[in-house]
Amino acid sequence: DDLSLSSPSVALGTDSTIYALSTAPGRAAIAIIRISGPACLQIYRALCPRARDPKQRMATVRALYDPTQAPSPNTLLDPSALVLYFPSPRTVTGEDVLELHVHGGPATVKAVLNAIEKCNDVIKSEHDNISQSSSFIRYAEPGEFTRRAFMNDVLDLPQIEALGETLNAETEQQRRLAVRGANTTLSARYEDWRQQLLYARGELEALIDFSEDQHFDESPQELIGSVSAQVAILRQQIRFHIQNASKGELLRNGIKIALLGAPNAGKSSLLNRVVGKEAAIVSTEEGTTRDIVDVGIDLGGWYCKIGDMAGLRSSKNEREKIGAVELEGIRRAKQRALESDVVVVVLSVQEGEGGSPSQLTVDPEVVEGVHACQEHGKSIVVAINKTDRLPGSVNTRDEAVASLSKQVQALFKGLTDDRVFSISCREAERGTELGSLTTDPGNIQSFLQGLISVFEEIARPEGIHENDMHDISYWEDSLGVTHRQQSNLKQCLEHLERFLYETKTTENNDTDMVNAESDVDIVTAAENLRFAAESLAQITGRGGADVEDVLGVVFEKFCVGK
Ligand code: GDP
């Protein structure tokens, strides 16, 4: 009959009771077994047959016994386990929860887990009316505790994602971002936007349902115009939100920095000065650094990844042949620069004899590489290295440095003064050896300060302008937005764009430019608003979203016991 078809799926059914080891497996002082579902108290009574029921939300020490046999020293599983019982609904899953803190040896854990499984038979034999299958008490699926928390409205999806990020966070930056997402502000914002879209759609549908003879305060064109205006504002907010979200992602995953420059310009030396330990090989042999060495570092609190790469050198200018390996290295270096967030261009002052130290010669290959990066909108910082080669005293060196800086700016148009630094890795190295004579030998510190101000610029939240009704913390919240949320937001944005296109409201047009006689297809236009609202519902998993799809994505990274 029909009923057999709609029997609840094992994975989702919340009538079953689930259990799992929630702490990491292996040797430890204690292991925590978590149980969630309606059978918690029955399991407790089966494991602790002679004990009183546990006090709610209070820790009690109990001896655990094999539930299938009469309690005796022979059937003892753990002589002193800490037992915690939390009745629903104010629990982590929203259901009854029982926690058993047992001794951490693998054999103890195994015995207690087996005993919980055996409770199935014990409870069934006591209550004939319970006709559940063997899935009545069962081991939890990955992420199932959290899934139940979602089902019981204890957590919303953005919070769950933040929880996942928290469990994965390794650096301080990552942890802070994860914590940002852990409250309900993001969900509340998505829900607010969704409501606005539903309302806008409702207004348009009034037009569809009673067009001809109905009298409105506004003409249909005016109504479409005002709805479009609302939608345009929403679009802008979502755009900012997405931009800031990708900034958050940048901070979570690390700002990618590429070192770009000819062989021997001093890229490895600079990297070593920055990292403060020998992380890459410093060598005078050209092309030794053929492969990209990624170094993850914490730079003034910013997590970044620096790549040291093969030097760029144009094959045409070189007398000796460049080996295939080095050519491949150069290709990769350029590619890597284009994939980076910040490109540090390392140039070097020529040696006195032969060339002039105050005349900068930059390899065409490097110039081309930097121009490509500029075209791709990369943030560029230039470090003119080996300034120790400049002639004269410190005072006259200032002039020479200024002249070099001018040359760089002529070469790379659009580069401002505060993005060009003169450094000397050699002086920096000597400075550290001698115990610094100046506060910033080789000017490395001020170069790093410049780099950090670039980070700050990249990470600054968008959306703060005079018409903005929100303060900075509103926009900073978007830093905690996950990748999944971003892709749903982008979908939402696409539908809004389509809506605005179909109502002929383009970005630069004023909304009252809506063509009065235009045949705006209201039905199609309104559909776009519905799709946009659905994209937002996907984020929170509420409001008619296909919850199973969403949950699959969110929980795939969770492990058992979470
Ligand atoms: P890369 O090929 O760009 O990685 O360059 P390296 O870091 O391997 O440096 C090439 C050579 O330049 C090495 O012999 C370094 O000792 C030297 N060098 C690096 N920085 C300086 C500097 O500030 N001044 C001088 N005079 N030599 C430097």
Radius of gyration, Cα only, in angstroms? 32 Å
The residue-averaged pLDDT reads: 80
End-to-end distance, in Å? 37 Å
Described by the principal axes of the CA atoms, the overall outline is flat
Strand tally: 12
Q: What fraction of residues sit in β-strands? A: 5-15%
- Count of helical segments? 18
Query: What is the CATH superfamily classification of the largest domain?
Result: P-loop containing nucleotide triphosphate hydrolases
Query: At the first level of CATH, what is the class of the largest domain?
Result: Alpha Beta
The biggest sheet amounts to: 6 strands, mixed
Helix content: 40-55%
Overview of the molecule:
- The two termini are 37 Å apart.
- 45% of the residues lie in helices and 14% in strands.
- Strand 8 and strand 9 form a beta hairpin.
- It has a 6-stranded mixed β-sheet with strand order 3-4-5-2-1-6, with helices on one face. A 6-stranded mixed β-sheet has the order 8-9-7-10-11-12, with helices on both faces.
- Helix 8 runs antiparallel to helix 16.
- It is flat and about 95 Å long.
- The longest helix is centred in the middle third of the chain and has 34 residues.
- It has 562 residues and is of the alpha/beta class.
- It has 18 helices and 12 strands.
- The chain folds into 3 domains: 144 residues, Gyrase A, domain 2 (2-Layer Sandwich); 153 residues, Four Helix Bundle (Hemerythrin (Met), subunit A) (Up-down Bundle); 205 residues, P-loop containing nucleotide triphosphate hydrolases (Rossmann fold, 3-Layer(aba) Sandwich), CATH 3.40.50.300.
- The chain binds guanosine-5'-diphosphate.
- Guanosine-5'-diphosphate (GDP) binds next to helix 9 and helix 13.
